[in-house]
Amino acid sequence: MGQKWEILDTQVHVPVERLTVSYSRSSGPGGQHVNKVNTKAEVRFHVHTAEWIPEDVRQKIVEKNKSRINKAGELLVTSEVSRSQRRNLSDCLQKISAIIGEASERPREPSAADIALRAARIEKRNKERLKQKKILSAVKNSRQVDFD
After folding, report:
1. Which of 78, 104, 107 is nearest to 91 (CA)?
2. pLDDT at residue 124, rounded to an integer
3. How do 5-6 and 106-107 pair as beta strands?
4. What's the first-to-final CA gap in the chain, in angstroms?
5. Contact at 8 Å (CB) between 18 and 45?
6. CB burial of residue 139 (10 Å; 0-12, 13-18, 19+)
7. How far is C-alpha 52 from the geometric centre of its chain's CA atoms?
């Protein structure tokens, strides 16, 4: 049984004015066009000072995206899926929104039925463990030799 999650806010507003956007040359096919135009979008923002994100969500972002955060503490997202700067920028914003949305998810509270089911399973496991322990103890006792 997998753990169910509750999403608090599905649409995350990312203020573009708080982001640092830069463009560079993209790799891949495109002929002469790819060598002339800066279409690869690179968006970064400092995670610890982003007050538009709640503190607990910021901490989860840092935990889950260690490989995307540089030494300066900036979350770096790049996109070069399109030959258009605008589409690549929008793809980066969608990625940031998805990262924030994923970090905003909270595990739902277990219901009374879930708690009861878990308690019953633990009790059954303990009974089975004690039963196996008694069987093993009896086997070991039967191996002992009486010296009387």
Report:
1. 78
2. 97
3. antiparallel
4. 55
5. yes
6. exposed
7. 20
Describe the crossing of helices 55-64 and 85-104 by its angle, rounded to 10 degrees: 110
Query: Which of 40, 64, 60, 50 minimizes the C-alpha distance to 13?
Result: 50
How far, in Å, CA of 66 to CA of 59, rounded?
Answer: 11
Please give the Cα distance from 142 to 136 (Å, whole number).
10
* Residue indicated by tokens 């889950």: 64
> For residue 55, which phi and psi values (nearest 5 degrees)?
-60, -45
Lowest mean pLDDT across 6-15, 25-34, 101-110? 6-15
Q: What residue type is 39 in one-letter code? A: T
3-class DSSP state for residue 13?
A: coil
Global confidence as pTM: 0.66
Q: Which amino acid is residue 143, in one-letter code?
A: R
Grouping H, G, I as helix, E, B as strand and the rest as coil, residue 130 is: helix
The structure tokens listed for 75 are 């979350």
Q: What is the token pair recorded at 47?
A: 């995670």
